[in-house]
């Protein structure tokens, strides 16, 4: 069969070759010769093969015999196999049953393992203590990831000191021997927290009964353990406390007895206190009344004290004045004795004079003229004296304060009249003895006071001759008009006018002098009402401008209302007078309460004055404006100063020429 | 001189003031019988009928006594004190004449019983009017209390 297949194959191959050769005509003849040789070779081969096939047939016949023999043997073998198969089936059935049983048991076991794994933490170690695996519960409790643990040693979970200890080595030696260990174990988590694990180390045995790994099963009992420890501690505490309480109870019992005793005492004490309280309330209400009474008395006394202080000062001053006056009176009495003699002489003279009446009439006319002259002289002298007094005060003050002023003073002294020689000596004396300056000042003050008394009596006595001059001149005008020509009449009017003026000056001087001796009363003054009264009382000329008052609320004060009213009258009328040439007259009146005084101010926007002459401002008969410009006697501000100083206050002023002036006076703040 | 029926007693040491006062009274129409004495002593002599007045009628009292305060020998104040303290003469109206309103003695005079006072003004017109009014009141309107 295989040869047939070979033959069949060849033509297909030559055919392919032929197709190849047809494409190339040159090679076609060569191809055909080769094919003829091939066929010859194949015929010889076929004869050889036929002989071989005869031999093969003979072989086959022998083989068929063998096959029959073998078939018979196979039948026997088949029968044997069939028996064996039956045996095998039996055994297979038995194995299946066993397998089923085994699978059920495995399932059961797996269930147990799962149950254990879910409710317990588990970890497996090799016998040396290196970690093989761990379940989720364990990882969760200890805070590790599984990959961090595999291959690490169990000592990772225990206290470092313990890990080094012999007890720990013994622990593992025991496990290696396959001994099961169960306890509460203290372990350390990854974060270093201490946990308590309740469980067991279970050595796992191989088939031969030798341990090959350790399974640890555990439950986290940290919370319970802690509570237990806490409870144990508390229990100890409670026992301690209990024994303390026993002592405390005994103590309390003792104290209770003491308290009962004390309570009984307190009841008695309370009754006593109640009684005392009632007594005290009674006394308290009495005291309240007494306190009010005292407060009232205190106020009264304070008021009285303040009044007394002023009154005392006043009395002191009056005493001085009276002493002065007494000494004056002694002189006056002597003077009177002298005058009496003079009068008697005069009476005798009058008898002679009567005989010479006609002559005297002529003489009187002459005398009238002389009197006018004398009068002027007196007025001049009076002014000079005042000036001198004022100069002396200033000179003394300057002397005390500044030695530089001495030379100036000397120059002034040289200028002074012969009357000043005594004073010059005094000054020279004072220069030499600066320490006695205070004494000298006091003497000067005394001299001032004497001068005040003197000016009173002088002005009183001056009035009489002036009255006579005025009266006689009036008689000439009324009764002898026919015998006097027009020029003469004018002169007489001038005499009347000047004597009248002199009278006014004397009145003012007298008023000023009187302030030195007038008693100053002290009572509360409603300054608002007082000033409003002054403003309303001011009489204006019909053609004069109406002043505009800016009157602020004024603080009340204490003093002599009539005198303080005079202060306001003088200051306000001055303010009006010196504003008369301004387009409008504005006057502002204010007060300011200070710690120990109350300051009042009258401000105008009038002519003002030159502060260079401030020293003369408050002097008697001192004027900073001419008579033609502003009418006045020059005594108003002197009176203001006198009144205020009698009230222990102060007067001062500020001014700018042509812009206006502010006059201030202060009174003591008695409330304070 | 007859000192009986003197209606106005006038004590004033200043002859000038006396002359002007008398002139003012006369000009005002008071022609009453007036006696001018030059000091307090003389005034008291008149009241008590002593010295030159010893012979006068003691029952005749002046209707008005004008008294200057400042007088030699016996002052107006002393005269006032004397007669106002005497029951026989205290009913005589006394008007005080003074040089100044500021005279501290004015209040004292009232205390002693003076009936009024007049300030002698410098201005003679005012003086004249003051005297005239005073005379009018005391001599005509006022009735002596007896």
TrEMBL record, chain B:
The keyword Metal-binding does not apply. One of its GO terms (biological process) is phosphorelay signal transduction system. The modification 4-aspartylphosphate is found at residue 68. This is Response regulator. Keywords: Phosphoprotein. InterPro entries: CheY-like_superfamily, Sig_transdc_resp-reg_receiver, TCS_response_regulator. PANTHER family: RESPONSE REGULATOR RCP1-RELATED (PTHR44520), TWO-COMPONENT SYSTEM REGULATORY PROTEIN (PTHR44520:SF1). Residues 7-135 form the Response regulatory domain. The keyword Phosphoprotein applies. It comes from the Bacteria. It comes from Flavobacterium cupreum. Gene3D superfamilies: 3.40.50.2300.
């Amino acid at each position: 069969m295989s040869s047939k297949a070979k033959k069949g194959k060849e033509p297909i191959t030559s055919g392919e070759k032929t197709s190849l050769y047809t494409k190339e005509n040159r090679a076609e003849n060569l191809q055909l010769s080769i094919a003829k040789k091939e066929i010859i070779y194949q015929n010889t081969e076929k004869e050889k093969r036929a002989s071989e096939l005869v031999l093969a047939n003979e072989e086959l016949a022998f083989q068929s015999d063998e096959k029959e023999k073998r078939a018979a043997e196979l039948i026997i073998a088949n029968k044997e196999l069939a028996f064996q198969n039956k045996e095998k089936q039996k055994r297979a059935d038995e194995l299946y049953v066993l397998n089923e049983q085994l699978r059920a048991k495995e399932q059961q076991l797996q269930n147990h393992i799962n149950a254990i794994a879910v409710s317990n933490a588990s970890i497996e170690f090799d016998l040396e203590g290196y970690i093989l695996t761990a379940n989720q519960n364990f990882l969760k409790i200890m805070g590790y990831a599984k990959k961090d643990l595999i291959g690490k040693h169990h000592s990772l979970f225990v206290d470092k000191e313990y890990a080094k200890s012999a007890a720990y080595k013994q622990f593992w030696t025991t496990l290696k021997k396959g001994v099961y260990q169960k306890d509460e174990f203290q372990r350390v988590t990854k974060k270093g927290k201490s946990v308590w694990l309740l469980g067991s180390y279970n050595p796992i045995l191989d088939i031969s009964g030798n341990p090959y790994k350790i399974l640890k099963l555990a439950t986290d009992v940290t919370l319970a353990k802690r509570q237990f420890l806490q409870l144990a501690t508390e229990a100890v505490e409670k026992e301690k406390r209990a024994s303390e309480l026993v002592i405390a109870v005994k103590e309390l019992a003792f104290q209770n007895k003491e308290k009962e005793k004390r309570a009984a005492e307190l009841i008695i004490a309370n009754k006593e206190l109640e009684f005392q309280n009632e007594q005290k309330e009674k006394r308290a209400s009495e005291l309240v009344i007494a306190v009010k009474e005292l407060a009232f008395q205190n106020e009264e006394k304070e008021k009285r004290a303040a009044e007394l202080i002023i009154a005392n000062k006043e009395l002191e001053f009056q005493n001085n004045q009276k002493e002065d006056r007494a000494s004056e009176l002694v002189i006056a009495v002597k003077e009177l004795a002298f005058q009496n003699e003079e009068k008697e002489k005069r009476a005798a003279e009058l008898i002679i004079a009567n005989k010479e009446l006609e002559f005297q009439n002529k003489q009187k006319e002459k005398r009238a003229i002389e009197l006018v002259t004398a009068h002027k002289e007196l007025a001049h002298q009076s002014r000079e004296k005042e000036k001198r007094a004022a100069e002396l005060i200033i000179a003394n003050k300057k002397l005390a304060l500044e030695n530089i002023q001495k030379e100036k003073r000397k120059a002034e002294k040289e200028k002074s009249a012969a009357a000043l020689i005594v004073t010059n000596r005094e000054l020279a004396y004072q220069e030499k003895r600066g320490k006695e300056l205070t004494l000298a000042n006091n003497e000067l003050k005394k001299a001032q006071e004497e001068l005040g008394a003197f000016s009173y009596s002088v002005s009183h006595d001056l009035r009489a001759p002036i009255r006579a001059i005025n009266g006689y001149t009036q008689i000439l005008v009324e009764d002898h008009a026919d015998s006097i020509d027009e020029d003469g009449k004018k002169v007489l009017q001038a005499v009347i006018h000047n004597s009248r003026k002199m009278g006014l000056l004397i009145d003012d001087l007298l008023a000023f002098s009187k302030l030195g001796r007038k008693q100053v009363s002290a009572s509360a003054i409603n300054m608002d009402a007082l000033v409003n009264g002054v403003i309303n009382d001011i009489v204006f000329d019909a053609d004069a401008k109406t002043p505009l008052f800016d009157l602020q609320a004024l603080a009340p004060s204490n003093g002599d209302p009539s005198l303080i009213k005079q202060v306001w009258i003088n200051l306000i009328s001055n303010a009006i007078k010196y504003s008369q040439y301004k387009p409008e007259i504005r006057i502002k009146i204010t007060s300011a309460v200070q710690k120990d005084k109350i300051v009042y101010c009258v401000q105008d926007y009038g002519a003002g004055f030159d502060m260079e002459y401030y020293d003369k401002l408050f002097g008697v008969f001192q004027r900073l404006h001419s008579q033609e410009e502003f009418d006045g006697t020059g005594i108003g501000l002197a009176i203001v100063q006198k009144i205020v100083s009698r009230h222990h206050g102060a007067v001062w002023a500020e001014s700018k020429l042509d812009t206006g002036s502010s006059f201030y006076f202060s009174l003591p703040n008695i409330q304070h | 001189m007859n000192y009986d029926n003197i209606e106005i007693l006038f004590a004033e040491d200043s002859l000038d003031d006396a002359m002007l006062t008398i002139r003012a009274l006369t000009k005002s129409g008071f022609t009453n019988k007036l006696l001018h004495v030059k000091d307090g002593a003389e005034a008291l002599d008149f009241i008590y009928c002593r010295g030159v007045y010893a012979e006068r009628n003691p029952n005749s009292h002046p209707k008005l006594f004008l008294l200057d305060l400042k007088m030699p020998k016996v002052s107006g104040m002393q005269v006032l004190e004397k007669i106002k303290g005497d029951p026989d003469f205290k009913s005589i109206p006394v008007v005080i004449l003074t040089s100044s309103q500021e005279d501290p003695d004015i209040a004292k005079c009232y205390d002693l019983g003076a009936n009024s006072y007049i300030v002698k003004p410098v201005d003679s017109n005012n003086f004249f009017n003051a005297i005239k009014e005073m005379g009018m009141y005391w001599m005509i309107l006022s009735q002596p209390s007896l």
